[in-house]
Amino acid sequence: MNAPGGHPLPRGVSGKLAPFGTTIFTTMTKLAQEHGAVNLSQGFPDFDGPEFIKQAARDAIDHQPNQYAPMPGLPSLRQAIAKRFTRDTALPCDPDTQVVVTAGCTEGIAAALIGLCNRGDEVILFEPFYDSYRAAVAMAGASARFVALTPTIEEVGGKRVVTSFAFNAAQLRAAFGPRTRAVLVNTPHNPTGKVFSREELTLIAELCVEHNAVAIVDEVYERLLFDPSQPHVSIASLPGMAERTVTLSSLGKTFSFTGWKIGWSVASPALTAAVRAAHQFITFAVATPLQHAAAAALAREEEAVGGLVPMLRANRDKLATALSDLGFAVHVPAGTYFICADHTAVAPRLGASDDQSFCMALIKQCGVAAIPPSVFYNTPALGHSLVRFAFCKKPETIDEGIARLRSLR
Q1: 50 DSSP 8-state letter
Q2: pTM of the predicted protein model
Q3: Domains within the chain, CATH numbers bracketed
Q4: Could you report the per-residue pLDDT of 241-282, keeping only the tens digit for each?
């Protein structure tokens, strides 16, 4: 196609990003709005976090400079992040050389990969994966190797239940090789709600040490845990990993301010230098008043988490029970705010054949939006029988979603 002057039009999206299209979260939220559906798709709360954090942001706007923050982040926030990291891992952390404040964890992941990887390097991803991971690997010029988290479905109490999402140890070992630069781990895990066990993380750590690879760990759901028997373990705290782990987290999930996009990276000085090398040219610095508020939030973290987790647990239990009663094989998550379920027994009621057609029919026929997990797989067929629901909503929103889902009977 030519422009009006007869010259060829410029090329559009680059070849490295064209395969990924528009993110599924944008697509499903738009459809939910168009159909007046209860949005249990995109993982953002339909409520705000604590008022004291909002007030801290207002105070910062009124009484602090509203200019660029230092590239690595405000000193007060970096100090709060370092203190929190030491509290959780028992590892020392220098806020001046080991912390970077990023535009959410999503930017932190991209900055880590871009800063650490060279063309030809390989990065191991567990599938299903958060959709930005594969795009960030492509932006870094690296290639991805995939290890599947396979659901196990069993009969429990007369109902089909997804008891676990587990990787095959031999497949993981085979994914490591001479070109492996990093393995990207998300625990607690989106979209499955899995919390990686200490045994699983120990194997990953041993392989990282053996192959001189870096672990890039997305821990944004680290405080959203529901099962004391499945605690969160930071891989950085395992033997041999403190110097080869980039630990990423954010304000959004723990404090219910996903729109603020305040995240952070903690790593050894050498790895932090790589993250900063990319971060300085991606965003340079993130919103200054919100960094002040984030420091205030971390100072009163328990106050925020103490009320949020019980509410999420109640939502989880209510939605899981309803889905199970409708015939879904449900995986009750140990963390995050997502339920992944097998829809095989339910899909015929909507005339659906896979997760994409199931989610489209669910919006149009039931008025509920969910996510088709096949978009989180390199091999989409592995996710065709699954559907992901978000329960980070007001209890009345969950109730309305369940009421609409009951039309599946």
Answers
A1: -
A2: 0.95
A3: 18-49+303-408 (3.90.1150.10), 67-155+164-300 (3.40.640.10)
A4: 999 999 999 999 999 999 999 999 999 999 999 999 999 999
